[in-house]
Amino acid sequence: MQMMMIYSSPRKRGNSTTLAKVFAQTSQNQYTLKEVHLQDAQLQPCRACKWCKTHYRCVIEDGMNELCLTFKESEAICFSTPVFWWGVSAQLKLFIDRLYQLQMDDFKDKKLSVIATGEDTLDGVQYRLVKEQFEAICEYTGMEFAGYLPVCADDDNPAGENVEALAQARALFTGM
């Protein structure tokens, strides 16, 4: 079985990536990992041309077609994202928008986990909004919302030093 790990932080050692790497290490006994750092992908935004709906691939040749193949082949997906302005990173939003080229059956029955880090307290609205977005995406696409880990982390409180958050990242996988 294959899991696609999507790291969407602009920082390769950012808080969301740190927790997602722990999640990924925990999953290696059950899944073959395909890791993608969206910051390195240099993806372009969707042009809304709908060419993909008749050709089943995007007209833009920037690597997203290959990422969509990996997405289709994966039984599990994990998105890790910092939270900016009450939502996911621009890199992850761009990736999600470009998944438009896929057919609805390409999403069905995949397990989706999400790791989100930000500076707000855990009872802050940003984490609720991110969770609700992915719950709605799963409901629409037929994916299973397998888990969500919101963590308050910043430069003064890094995730890599938060023993509880690291344990929660490991537990997130075991709950799948």
TrEMBL record:
Pfam families: FMN_red. Keywords: Flavoprotein, FMN. Coiled coil: none annotated. InterPro entries: Flavoprotein-like_sf (IPR029039), FMN_Rdtase-like_dom (IPR005025), ISF_SsuE-like (IPR051796). Gene3D superfamilies: 3.40.50.360. Residues 1-121 form the NADPH-dependent FMN reductase-like domain. The keyword Flavoprotein applies. GO terms for molecular function: oxidoreductase activity. This is NADPH-dependent FMN reductase. It comes from Sphaerochaeta globosa (strain ATCC BAA-1886 / DSM 22777 / Buddy) (Spirochaeta sp. (strain Buddy)).
